[in-house]
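Consider the following assembly input.
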Amino acid sequence: AQTVTQSQPEMSVQEAETVTLSCTYDTSESNYYLFWYKQPPSRQMILVIRQEAYKQQNATENRFSVNFQKAAKSFSLKISDSQLGDTAMYFCAFMWLGAQKLVFGQGTRLTINP
Amino acid sequence: EPEVTQTPSHQVTQMGQEVILRCVPISNHLYFYWYRQILGQKVEFLVSFYNNEISEKSEIFDDQFSVERPDGSNFTLKIRSTKLEDSAMYFCASSRQIRNEKLFFGSGTQLSVL
């Protein structure tokens, strides 16, 4: 079974700083997708970034980038120039290619302080 | 940008009552999902639905749960006899024809069972 672990329950940084959220996963599959979702206080789930496991290049979306280490089964999210609106719960998620379900980690609560 | 719509945003019910949670997926999407999040816990997969039938379901999705696409636009989750432990945020999601495409989540329905 696939599992996703986020070892940082909470993090807090100052506005404009860079912050990295950690995620590790366990799977025997070789083809899969990894995701970071943001859940602000409104509790809506918003996709931040997606990475295909077969791609060596790390995905980037504006201020958000990932460090994907397939051999280590690690998938961290870096937020550059953090903004107050980045305050949210962040979930790492895994989906095996051909499956129809996301497996989520426990989440990291990120607070950006002014 | 198109979005997934869920109603109601909050529902309160008595234990043992039936509830129906409603979702309107994005119009050109063909895969539909329900996830739930008990307060303070990770988001969990319940069920996926494609071509008018369940394509995958989790252990949580027992006989008390059912899904339906009654009219080609709505996608519903029914809980036949609610229990206290069914209290959670329920998220509907949809994706386009291609599997592993980006999942678009609705804003959720907070179900409170008293």
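The radius of gyration of chain B is 13 Å. Ask yourself how this observation constrains the way the partners meet.
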